[in-house]
Design brief:
This protein is an alpha/beta fold and 492 residues long. 48% of the residues lie in helices and 15% in strands. Bound molecules: adenosine-5'-triphosphate and magnesium ion.
Length: 492
């Protein structure tokens, strides 16, 4: 920190020297014997403390203080006065914004301590002002980004390793977070590459099981008997090829989470075994008579609608209801175009870093094409495209159209629907008048809530609603602020 500068003003030479001596070891000290000299100095220098007697040759110390409020508003003003003067100056003290009045004879240690404390509290007040400003600024960015396709792609939301800005992802992640703290089974559905496994890992990471294992089993890849033995274990000799005992995934993950991917592909016989496990919490290895308890949370995923399979008679209804303690549906990437820029930047940075390449960013016409593509393979397809582009780019280059795959380069890079202003996108998204009005209402209510940090009174006032009216809307649109809190917690 810079050394503080103290200006001492007194007509008496001895008083001046005594005061200067009191501070000269710790601060820069300048002295003045007339008001004019003092005011000239104040005009051109960044003085931190002004210490003045009451009577100076050509003017009163109080006048110097009042004038210095204009040139040096932040300076700390201390008046040194005789005892008999105190009564008289009482009224004028506030005009000069005086910090303290010191009575003569002053005590050296007390005076030094007072100046030090005054400088410290001024510094704290400065920092407080600065942080307040910084906080207001970051609030503004946070608000602007929600649902605004033009917002800087830098400011994204995160849930564990999932990155997004869209409201639909915010709702899924918020529900996932609420589900995570319960111990209920979770069913995650979504097209291929939408992030089902990443979300399952996030749920585990936010659950009380986070310090135990998270094990993955792809149920679509194995014939029935092998799948049973993978999950429940087997005894030696239970079937051909079972040359030794094998501990299944369920007992191995005791206390943790098992992620059953592609659950829609399992046989009716396996569905029965899984249902029994979910009901009883016990496993029996193939070829064994003994059951053993195991405490495992199941997260199942499917890229086909289990409900539709139940309706078609291809999946057990009772198992479906068991699995969907919480049901999370990940939207396809083409339905959340606003996530594409943040994902593209995130994936490009991550991959560039992993291969030690410096990428300056993604060119605007590339971003337009990325936003216009249909992404049937969702985030995984986007990830592959970005990875390829980063590999082709030179060090210190932007990712531009020449790095795109042929299919993407062929896309017309003019304005995409995702770049239209938000209200225009709502109007273009189809549906009846009532549905469109509801979509706008939902957006306005959630933005007002976020803007007012979920203070219901303030948000209601801004929207011209009663508190009860606002509560009804929150309920009706299932608005929730847990994700905002999670984000704040994640940053600390
Ligand atoms: N929101 C996201 N933020 C960052 N990365 C993501 C996001 N969503 C998906 N990914 C990445 O995309 C890839 C595909 O994700 P994941 O494997 O979780 O999808 P999936 O739905 O399980 O796919 P599949 O149905 O094909 O098994 C992964 O590399 C993952 O890291
Ligand atoms: Mg997967």
């Amino acid at each position: 920190m810079k050394e503080s500068l103290i200006l001492i003003i007194d007509e008496d030479r001895d008083d001046l020297i005594a005061l200067a001596k009191c501070f000269s070891t710790d601060y820069q000290v300048v002295s003045a014997r007339s008001g004019k000299e003092a005011l000239d100095f104040l005009e051109g220098s960044d003085v931190d403390v002004i210490l003045s007697g009451l009577r100076i040759n050509d003017m009163s110390g109080l006048d110097i203080f009042s004038q210095s409020r204009v040139t040096r508003p932040e300076a700390i003003r201390i008046l040194v006065a005789e005892h008999h003067d105190l009564e008289a100056i009482n009224r004028e003290v506030s005009d000069g914004a005086i910090y303290q009045v010191i009575r003569k004879p002053w005590h050296r240690t007390a005076l030094r301590l007072m100046v030090r404390r005054a400088l410290e509290s001024r510094e704290l007040a400065r920092r407080h002002r600065y942080l307040n400003r910084a906080l207001k600024f970051s609030d503004a960015i946070w608000d602007k980004d929600i649902g605004n396709p033009h917002a800087s792609p830098k400011k994204s939301l995160e849930f564990d390793k999932l990155v997004f800005v869209s409201e639909s992802m915010m709702n899924v992640c918020s529900l996932a977070q609420r589900g995570a703290v319960t111990d209920l089974p979770i069913l995650i559905q979504g097209e291929t590459g939408t992030g089902k496994e990443l979300l399952a890992r996030a749920v585990h990471a936010f659950s009380k099981r986070r310090d135990n294992l998270f094990l993955v089993q792809n149920c679509g890849a194995l014939p029935d008997e092998l799948l049973q033995s993978e999950l429940f274990g087997h005894k030696r000799g239970a079937f051909t090829g079972a040359i030794s005992d094998r501990l299944g995934l369920f007992p191995a993950a005791d206390g943790g989470t098992v992620f059953l991917d592609e659950i829609s592909d399992v046989s009716p016989a396996f569905q029965v075994s899984l249902l029994r496990f979910l009901q009883e919490g016990e496993v029996k290895a193939i070829g064994s008579e003994k059951t053993r308890k195991c405490d495992v949370r199941i997260i199942a995923a499917s890229n086909r609608s289990l409900k539709a399979l139940v309706e078609a008679g291809e999946f057990r209804r009772d198992l479906y209801y068991r699995l969907r303690g919480f049901e999370l549906n990940l939207p396809p990437l083409r339905d959340r175009v606003e996530d594409i820029p943040v994902l593209a930047e995130h994936l490009a940075n991550r991959y560039a870093e992993s291969i030690g390449r410096k990428i300056l960013g993604i060119a605007l016409d590339v971003m337009r094409r990325l936003k216009a593509h249909r992404w049937t393979g969702n985030v995984r397809e986007l990830e592959n495209e970005i990875r390829r582009m980063v590999a082709l780019a030179e060090n210190g280059e932007f990712l531009n159209v020449k790095h795109l795959s042929e299919e993407l380069a062929a896309i017309d890079g003019t304005l995409t629907s995702g770049e239209l202003p938000f209200d225009q996108r709502i109007l273009n998204s189809g549906g009846t008048l009532k549905e469109t009005v509801e979509r706008i209402e939902r957006q306005m209510v959630s933005q007002a809530l976020i803007r007012n940090k979920w203070n219901h009174s303030k948000a209601a006032r801004e929207l011209g609603l009663s508190r009860v009216g606002l509560a009804n809307k929150i309920k009706r649109y299932s608005l929730d602020h847990t994700l905002t809190l999670a984000k704040i917690a994640g940053e600390t």
